[in-house]
Amino acid sequence: MDKTNDAEWLKGDRHQIVRHDNDEFPDLLRQIPDPPLLLYVHGDANLLQLPALAIVGSRNPTAGGERNAFEFARHLATLGFTIVSGLAQGIDTAAQRGALAAGGNTIAFLDHGIDRVYPASNKALAHEIAARGALISEFPLGMHPGKELFPQRNRLISGISLGTLVVEAAQRSGSLITARLAAEQGREVFALPGSIHNPLARGCHQLIRQGAKLVETADDIVSELAPLVGHLLQNSMQSTATEKSARAPDGEYVELRKFIGHDPVSADELALQSGLTIDQVSSMLLILELHGEIEALSGGRYSLLS
Questions:
Q1: Quick one: three-class SS letters along 76-140?
Q2: Cβ atoms within 10 A of the Cβ of 287, count?
Q3: Distance from CA of residue 45 to its chain's centroid?
Q4: Where are the domains of the chain?
Q5: Sign of CA dihedral 161, 24, 47, 128
Q6: Which architecture, in CATH terms, is 3-238?
Q7: Does residue 306 carry a pLDDT above 70?
Q8: pLDDT (tens digit, 9 = 90+) per residue, 18-36?
Q9: Is the dihedral of CA 212, 217, 218, 224 positive or negative?
Q10: Per-residue pLDDT tens for 46-61?
Q11: Which residues, listed in sequence order, are joined to residue 39 by a DSSP beta bridge?
Q12: What mean pLDDT do residues 121-128 have?
């Protein structure tokens, strides 16, 4: 550790070093077999003390996987969970953006020095997390990222979290290493199932065969973790209802939604079934898509999202 460089870095806004023997050091990380000696924190170090859930997965997910990561993170963040991930492209990015979109907390553990940003495409996201959440690294300032550092970083992602949710992962994936570390650390492991034709679902299916909890909704996670963080969830039903009310259009939208299912349907068919004009239907479909309730498919057709 270069004390001169550290002292200079500590002059930055919201820069802090949390040492293993400090009261601010999180108890959950003290419990893992190889806790870090110190953590560089850019952001709010208090987040280290809050109940957290890790969301990890493929760097090259499907659109559906990315959407699932975003929505699970958004919903769980509204209930008070700090969403933890690794700032990688794909599922990590979607999860951390979901938490931020909810006005919730998120932590990104880095596999390099905290004075760097990798990947460069996530520079803006990193700045937003530093301003509204926390970037954290145990590596010295100036250290470059490297694949050999992934497992070391991943043990912190799983270690600080009450559970780890895997969203889309190939059978040989770094996300499975995080899941294995979580299990070894005595944390809960959750996995989203997917199509048998999707190679990115195979890692999740493998985890489920090995004992991970199959997850279809965020409530599946909440029910498992509720005994550990019951105080967070006392008002979850009310919060969820309020959030849905704020997000969901009403009035004629309620009538239109009756005719939208999981089978693709065109705007013309919806106009005929609902009695609305095609202009009304087209406008309403756009709003419903923006609210994440429906999905636009090829051929001008639409279907309901779970």
A1: HHHCCCEEEECCCCCHHHHHHHHHHHCCCCEEEECCCCCCCCCCHHHHHHHHHHHHHCEEEECCC
A2: 13
A3: 19
A4: 3-238, 248-304
A5: negative
A6: 3-Layer(aba) Sandwich (3.40)
A7: no
A8: 999 998 999 999 999 999 9
A9: negative
A10: 999 999 999 999 999 9
A11: 18
A12: 96
Residue in the block written with tokens 């693709």: 264
For residues 109 and 151, the answer to whether their CB atoms sit within 8 Å is no
Give the per-residue pLDDT at 219: 85
With a cut of 50, say whether residue 148 has pLDDT above it: yes
Question: How far is 122 from 108, CA to CA, in rounded Å?
Answer: 11
Do 252 and 217 meet the contact criterion of CB atoms below 8 Å apart?
Answer: no
Query: Within the chain, where are the H helices?
Result: 3-9, 27-30, 63-78, 91-101, 123-132, 150-159, 174-184, 202-209, 218-225, 236-247, 252-257, 267-274, 278-290
Q: Compute the distance between CA of residue 271 and CA of residue 302 in angstroms, rounded to an integer.
A: 13
CB 53, CB 104: distance < 8 Å: no
The CATH code belonging to domain 248-304 is 1.10.10.10
